[in-house]
Amino acid sequence: MRTAPFDVALALRLLSPAGTLVELAEELGVAPSQVHSALARLGRAGLLKPAKRATNPRALTEFALYGVRYAFPATKGSLAAGVPTAYSTSPLDAEVDAVDVVVLPANVPDAVQGFAITPLYRGAAGLAARTPQLFEMVALVDAIRLGDPRIRLAARTRLEQRINAAASLAGVTPPSTAAVPPRPGSAGSTP
């Protein structure tokens, strides 16, 4: 079974301690069975820590920064009303001066007109109201899936910072600053 786009959102959510399957499903706006299936796929893909319901931050960083763009590409579609994403919302909207707006199509009260992109999963637009911090990470993934090289670089930097921060809070050595043990016989090694 292959990893599905929803699995990326769940892996990002599991950077923080999680409750029951039902609580996760409610937070993400999906059925508990969808969360259960995604957990199984994430485990097989090595994106979860063995025998735990927690993300493997090193694997997630590598996949989110360099694989998501190819596994789940996004393209701009027609104009639609929806929730701003990618470089059209926080945290990238302050540093990217884009001439267009990209949205996840949704029927919400504060909908914005923009170019529609395919969401990672059907409930992704609802994260903006339910879980703003998770929505910002999903928006960064959307920027990686969609953006030009300059936008992808900014999104990768921001997403990596957030994954590292979450890993540090969980007591895991952040992926980009992992200590490499000294080689035998080199300075710093013990006899």
Describe the structure.
The chain is mostly helical and 191 residues long. The protein has one domain. It contains seven helices and three strands, in the order H-H-H-H-E-E-E-H-H-H. It has helices at 5-13, 21-28, 32-45, 57-71, 127-130, 132-146, 149-169, and strands spanning 79-84, 102-105, 112-116. Strands 1, 2 and 3 form a three-stranded mixed sheet that branches. The protein is globular and about 45 Å long. The N and C termini lie far apart (47 Å). Residues 177-183 and 186-191 have low confidence and may be disordered.
Topology, element by element:
Blueprint: H1 5-13, H2 21-28, H3 32-45, H4 57-71, E1 79-84, E2 102-105, E3 112-116, H5 127-130, H6 132-146, H7 149-169
Parallel strand pairs: 2-3
Antiparallel strand pairs: 1-2, 1-3
Distance between the termini: 47 Å
Low-confidence spans: 177-183, 186-191
Mean pLDDT across every amino acid position: 87
Number of strands: 3
The largest sheet is: 3 strands, mixed
Total individual domains? 1
Instruction: Give the oligomer, counting copies of the same chain as homo and different chains as hetero.
Output: single chain
List keywords for this structure.
mainly alpha, disordered C terminus, 191 residues
Offer a concise description of the structure.
Helices cover 45% and strands 8% of the residues. With 191 residues, it is mainly alpha-helical. The chain has one domain.
